[in-house]
Amino acid sequence: MNRTIPPPIKDAVEFDIKLKPYEKFTLDNGIPVYVIKSEEQDTLQLELVFPAGSWYESESLEALATNFLMKNGTSKRTALEINEAIDYHGAYLNRNAYHENATFTLHCLTKHTEVLLPVLQDVILDPIFPEEELQLYKQNQKQKLAVNLQKCDFVANRFIDKYLFGEFHPYGRVSSMMAYDALQTETLRAFYQKHYTYNNCRIFVAGNMPANMLALLNQHFGSTRWNGETSLLRPELPVQPAEEKKFRIFNDENGVQGAIRIARPFPNRYHPDFPKMLVLNTILGGYFGSRLMSNIREEKGYTYGIYSQLYNFRQVSAINIQTEAGRDVCEATIEEVYNELRRLQNEPVPQEELDLVRNYMIGSILGDLDGAFQLIQRWKNLILNDLDENYFYNNIQTIKTITAEELQQLAKQYLTPGDFYELVVI
Amino acid sequence: MIHYNKFTLANGLRVVVHEDHTTPMAVLNVLYDVGARDENPEQTGFAHLFEHLMFGGSVNIPEYDEPLQMAGGENNAYTTSDLTNYYIQLPAENIETAFWLESDRMLSLAFSEKSLDVQRKVVSEEFKEHYINKPYGDVWHKMRELAYSSHPYRWMTIGKELSHIENAKLEDVKAFFFKFYRPVNAILSVAGNVTTEQVKTLAEKWFGDIPPGEKYHRNLPVEPPQTAAHKLDVKANVPLDALYKCYHMYARSDKRYYAADLVSDILGGGSSSRLHQVLVKEKKLFSNIDCYHFGSLDAGLLTIEGKLVKGVKMKDAEKAIQTELEKLQAEVIVDRELQKVKNRVESLLAFEDMSLLNRANNLAFYELLGDAGLMNKEFENYDVVTAEDIHREAKLLFDEKNANTIYYYAENQG
C-alpha cells in the first residue's frame, strides 16, 4: 500500500444538496408556523420570533432589556417560579435580541412540551417588568460590562462597528453604563406592547413534536389577538462611517497582545456580489486553511488564530478581519494582512486552491444541514430575510461555478488595503 | 440508546462503530490516552503543544489539512489534563480520506523543526490570549497550585509556565510521540453513514500494520487527603472582587461522583439553582455565581466562583456561601429538587446525543473509561442517587478542611 497516494474522493460539485422543505401551518389568529419534523430523537425546539431588535429602539439597550426581562416575572408567576418550571423539566428557555429580531427559544424533551407551553405563553403574553428585576439587571449588566471593558477583543469589536456604521446607528451603537442607568420599566413596557404582538409573531418548530402540537400552539398562542395589532414601519437609518481610517487605542498599558480589526463596508445579502464574496472571504480567512491563517499563524506564528468574516446584517454588510496578536508583532501582522489582500488582487487563485475551497464549503453546508434543528435554522434565515430556497440554491451554484477571474475582479473591487479601517487595541 | 459495535485490531487499537444511516455525514474520532497529567513536571504543556504539532504533517503526507478540506471535511482537536482527542467530520462518501490521514499520523509524524518553531510561538500566543491578557485569567493557575500538592492536576493543560513550551526540543517531541501515540494507547471511533463491515475493512487496511507500541501504565502521584483549609489572597488589576472556592471531589469512576455532580447542579445549575436564587437575586451579594466541575478522570475540584457586587465585603460574601453549604449539610433535600436535577441530567444527555460528533466523542471517551456501553448506562448512575446520598456527600465535600479559597481583590478599589 502506498500511503503517499490519497484515496479517491467524491468531489463537491457532485454532491446534490437538497434543502428539505418545511411544512407551514397557520394558527387561528393568523400566526404562521414553520415546521421541520423529525422522529429520530425525543427532543423539540420551539422558537417565537418578533421584529423587536435594536433597529426599532429609540434608546440604546431597550430591545435587549425588554427581551431579557420578559422572562423575569408575569402577573401570575414570579421570575423564580418561571425558572423553577423550566429547570424542573430539564428545559432551556433562551431569549435573544439581535439587530432586527428578538427571539424566545424553548428546548425540551418532547414529553414535557405540554406542561411547558403555559409557562412560555405567560412569558410572551403577560410580562410585567418588575422594578426590582430591572434594578438588579442594571447592576449586574454594568458589572459584567466593567469586566468586558478590560478585554482588548471586546473593546476592539465595539470600536470597529462604530467606525463602520456610526455610533448612532443600531449597528454601531454600543452598551454603556449610562445607557443601562437610563433604562426604565415604562419604556420597556411600551416597547414590549408595540413589538410583541400576535400579528408580528412567527413561530419555528423543529424536532419530535407531540401529536397534538398544533392544537397546543393554537390553545396558547392562536386563540386571541393578543396584545392587539401594531403595524411596524422599518425606518431607513443611514450609516455614518468614520472619516479617519487608522486607529490605535491603549486600553491596558500592560497588555501583552493587541486586538487587530481590519474592516470595510460591503453590500448586503441581496447584492449579486454577496454570494461571490462568501467564497472570496473563505479563501482569505474563512477556514483553517485560509490565506490569513496559513501565513500569519502557520507560517509566522504571530497569533493563535486569525479570521475574516462577512457580516450578515440586513441593511449593509462588512468584511471584518480579526485577530489577537503578540503586542510586538501587531504592525507586522497588519502588513501581512495587506500583503494577502494585494495578492488576491494581483494573482488569480490557483485552480487547486479554488477546487479545495469549493469542496470545503459544500462539505460544510452538507454538515450544517444535518438534523431538524439545523434545517429550521437555515430556513429561518431565509424566511426572516424574505428569501426562499432559490437564494440557497443560487449560493450553492456560485460556490460550484465561480471562476478565478471573477474572484480576482471581486478582490480588485473590494479588497484594496486603503479602503479598510484599521484598528489595534492593546 | 446509542447502538454500537466494537472490535480490536491485532495491534491493540480499539475500534467503536456507531451506524447512523439518517445522516449524509461521518465522523472519525481518535482518542489518545495521554493528557497533561502524564507530563514531566519540568516539561508541562507538552501534551497540548504536541496536539498542535499533529497538524504539521506526517511521515507520508506533508500537509494534513489540505487533502481533508479537498474531501469536504473539517477537523479539530482538544487536550485536557486527562486525554487528547482528534476528530474529523466529512461527507460519508469520503470517509476513507479520514482513515488515510489519521493512520499516517499515528504511524509517524514528520517531526519538522519548522513546525515546532512556529507552534511554540502559536501556543505562546494562545497562552497570552487566554491566561495573561484576560482579567482573572491567572486564577486557575493559582488555584491548581493551591489545591494540589502532588497530583499533576497542579498544573494547567497549557503548561505551568511559558518557558516550558519555549524550551521544547525536537527529541522530546519524538520521545513523547513514540511513548504515547501508539495503537495500544488509542481508541478509534467512527460514527455516521457507515457500516461496521466497511469500518472493519478500512481500519485493517489503514491502521492494521502500525506497530502496536508499548502499553503505557499510568502511575501518577496520589493526592493525599487535604487536612487543612488553604487560602490565598490575590490583588490584580481587575474591576471587581471575586471569590473562588474549590473542594476536592471524586474520581470519574467512583460511584460517589454522580452524587457530587448532582450537588453541583443543585447549587449552580440553571437560574433556579440555590446559589443564583439566594445570593444573586435575594441577597444581591454577587452579580453572578456558578458551581461546576470539569468531570476529570482523577479526583477533581468542585468549584464555586462568583463576582461580588461592588461594595460587598469579601467575608460577608463568603459567609453567605457558607450558609448555603451548611443548609445542604443540615437538611435532606426534598424529592422535587432531587427530581429536578435528575430531569436536567436526562435532558442534557438527550441533547448531547443529538450531535453525531458528540456521539463519536463520547463513545471513545466511555471506552477509555472502560466500556463504550457505559454511555447508555449513564442516566441510571444518576437516577439511583438518593436524597440521603446527596446529604452525606455534601457533608464530606464541604468540610472546611477540604476547602481551597482564593480571595481575588480588585487592587484599584483600595
Automatic annotation (TrEMBL), chain A:
Extract the GO molecular function terms from the UniProt entry.
metal ion binding
Domain Peptidase M16 N-terminal residue range list? 36-147
What residues does the Peptidase M16 C-terminal domain cover?
A: 184-359
What is the designated name of this protein? Answer: Insulinase family protein
Q: Which organism is it from?
A: Chitinophaga fulva
Specify the taxonomic lineage. Answer: Bacteria, Pseudomonadati, Bacteroidota, Chitinophagia, Chitinophagales
From TrEMBL, chain B:
A GO biological process held by the record: proteolysis
Is Hydrolase there in the keyword field? yes
Keyword terms of this UniProt record = Hydrolase, Metalloprotease, Protease, Zinc
Q: Where is the signal peptide?
A: none
In terms of InterPro entries, this protein maps to: Metalloenz_LuxS/M16, Pept_M16_N, Peptidase_M16, Peptidase_M16_C
Outline the extent of the Peptidase M16 C-terminal domain: 169-344
Highest taxon in the source lineage: Bacteria
UniProt-recorded Gene Ontology molecular function terms:
metal ion binding; metallopeptidase activity
Q: Where is the Peptidase M16 N-terminal domain?
A: 14-129
Tell me which family the UniProt entry assigns to this protein: Belongs to the peptidase M16 family.
What's this protein's name?
A: Insulinase family protein
